[in-house]
Specification:
The complex is a heterodimer.
Chain A: H1 4-34, H2 41-48, H3 51-90, H4 98-113, H5 116-129, H6 139-165, H7 168-176, H8 181-211, H9 223-234, H10 238-269
Helix pairs in contact in A: 3-4, 3-6, 3-9, 3-10, 4-6, 5-6, 6-8, 7-8, 8-10, 9-10
Chain B: H1 2-18, E1 34-38, H2 58-69, E2 77-81, H3 84-88, E3 97-98, H4 106-109, E4 113-121, E5 123-128, H5 129-133, H6 140-144, E6 148-151, H7 156-164, E7 171-173, H8 176-184, E8 190-194, H9 195-205, E9 209-215, E10 224-230, H10 237-249, H11 252-260
Parallel strand pairs in B: 1-2, 1-3, 6-7, 6-8
Antiparallel strand pairs in B: 4-10, 5-8, 5-9
Helix pairs in contact in B: 2-10, 2-11
The chains are: A mainly alpha, B alpha/beta.
């Protein structure tokens, strides 16, 4: 039996939902009805939302998207591993290992500070230009390395923030139980730290999923490049819209999932 | 009011003083001025030193000859720069005509207007000496086995697929510079360009660059013809075409071509 307060709150919520739905509908209707009234709408529609072009190019785009997925699939685990290693290196407290720590700091500073596209050009064209034989000069290898280097720097910083969020007393307790420093990191600190930063890392991987398209600058014909080819041949931007839809189909669920994880975490903590 | 009088006056003066061709009068963006767009940057040999105002380079020279034919003096020509994307975007254009080696295709004609062709280009295979030493021949069978690259924004992509049909998926790049960088890095063996561009790249840009062969401009499959791009339904189109026809008839166009574009009969034709 719900209390009077609960009944009142349910009614309030329903009212709020109705108003929200009504105002959303009004805005959507206004957009749908008003935008086509703009004098240039015909041309915009023909250039960006052309059904004929869309149908013609969409299958090719989907096929090209497989390459994006493949690049993402082989980059993501390497980014996670390198990011973790760098984060641990930044947390080293042994004086003799200070050079390693310094290198890790320099690495994150440099690669977080550079535009991804510059790193891709520099590594993707620069290193093969040194005269490597095939297949070791492949843009897939070096372009992926560029992505890995940039994203691992971000992931390292996120993991480091996780490590630092674990109270110092945990470390002290682990050491007093007789665990070595590496064991206390491995069994006590990291399991808690990583769990805390999962949502933040999810966001990074969503961003990575979009940035994979940047590899097209050095040759691979992935979805963005394929859309560009269609655009150029048909003098029409609709293929980009098709590519955007494919990206959204992946990123929106992923973003929602990250939000869901974050909410759950907040509830668990409070 | 002042402005209007001034404009009217200016038009009157321009009309009277220069006997502007009736065809183009009042059809340009700015009265009495022909606004021509080219690429950013514009490449040799189409435009020399990225300075179309000098009239040097094939397209720059064609532009001024065309303007003259249409009744504009050199002073009445202004240049703007557009990327490919800017030239095809919907909405008002900031140029009257745009020439930057736009290939005329049926699909593109649906969105923008093209003039009649002012140049028919051979397509040439740019490669490096080491690839030739490695046994590459100017035959389609041999070319199929190479690792190909091309500028993604050009019709070289479908031509590559149709004329050669490489065994491996070609690599595509944003511009000539990236294609040559990839070639220099050994990531691609060969790239397909229009012949004048390929000649320039092989001579100046690519170290040990060489032209393996050409598909001549008279080929019936996939001819590559350059046209001036205009806004769809541009009233200038007929004037431009008339002027182009006049330039062709008088032999002026051929003259410009001979002056700025290298004779390429020495390049072997691909079987």
């Amino acid at each position: 039996m719900p209390t009077r307060r609960q009944i009142f709150e349910t009614r309030q919520r329903r009212r709020a939902n109705l108003i929200a739905a009504g105002s959303t509908l009004a805005v959507v209707l206004a957009i749908v009805l008003l935008v086509p009234l703009a004098p240039g709408w015909d041309r915009v529609q023909r250039s960006f939302f052309n059904g004929e072009v869309f149908a013609k190019t969409f299958p090719g785009l989907l096929e090209a998207f497989l390459l994006d997925i493949a690049i993402f699939a082989w980059c993501a685990p390497l980014i996670a591993a390198l990011g973790l290693a760098v984060a641990i290196a930044r947390d080293l407290r042994t004086p003799a290992l200070y050079p390693v720590k310094l290198a890790a700091i320099l690495y994150t500073d440099i690669f977080r500070g550079l535009p991804v596209i510059l790193v891709i050009y520099l590594i993707g064209f620069g290193i093969p230009g040194l005269g490597l034989p095939r297949p070791w000069n492949s843009p897939y290898i070096w372009g992926s390395l560029a992505l890995i280097l940039v994203y691992a720097a971000y992931v390292a910083e996120v993991i480091r923030s996780g490590i630092e969020s674990i109270h110092e007393s945990q470390r002290a307790a682990a050491l007093s139980l007789g665990l070595s420093t590496s064991d206390s990191m491995r069994f006590v600190i990291l399991p808690q730290a990583i769990r805390r930063v999962v949502p933040a890392n999810m966001n990074l991987f969503i961003a990575l999923q979009k940035d994979v398209a940047l590899l097209s600058f050095i040759g691979p014909v992935e979805i963005f490049r394929q859309a560009g080819v269609y655009k150029s041949l048909l003098a029409n931007f609709t293929p980009y819209v098709g590519a955007a839809l494919i990206f959204l189909a992946i990123t929106i669920p992923a973003t929602r999932y990250a939000d869901h994880l974050m909410n759950r975490q907040r509830k668990a903590r409070s | 009011m002042k402005l209007m009088t001034f404009t009217a006056l200016a038009c009157g003066l321009a009309g009277a003083a220069l006997a502007q061709d009736d065809c183009a009068a009042g059809k340009t963006l700015t009265d009495g001025v022909l606004t021509i767009a080219t690429g950013n940057p514009a490449y040799y040999p189409w435009v020399l030193d990225d300075a179309p105002e000098s009239g040097k380079g094939f397209e720059a020279a064609v532009a001024y000859a065309l303007a003259e034919e249409m009744g504009f003096t050199a002073d009445q020509v202004t240049w703007v720069r557009t990327s490919f994307d800017q030239s095809i975007q919907p909405g008002a254009k900031n140029f009257d005509v745009n020439l930057q080696q736009f290939s005329i295709t049926e699909e593109r004609e649906k969105i923008v207007d093209f003039s009649d062709p002012y140049y028919s280009s051979a397509m040439a295979v740019l490669t490096t000496q080491s690839v030739v030493d490695g046994g590459a021949q100017p035959t389609v069978a041999s070319l199929k086995t190479l690792l190909w690259g091309a500028d993604a924004n050009t019709t070289a992509v479908p031509m590559l697929m149709d004329l050669i049909g490489p065994d491996k998926q070609p690599m595509l790049y944003d511009d000539n510079v990236d294609v040559t960088a990839a070639m220099q890095a050994g990531q691609i063996d060969a790239a397909l360009f229009d012949l004048p561009t390929a000649l320039y790249l092989s001579a100046v840009v690519v170290e040990n660059g060489t032209i393996l062969g050409q598909f001549p401009p008279e080929r019936s499959d996939n001819p590559d013809q350059f046209g001036l791009l205009m806004e769809e339904g541009s009233p200038l189109k007929t004037c431009v075409n008339e002027a182009l026809a006049a330039l062709k008839d008088s032999g002026k166009l051929a003259e410009i071509e001979a002056e700025w574009l290298q004779d390429a009969t020495g390049v072997p034709v691909i079987e």
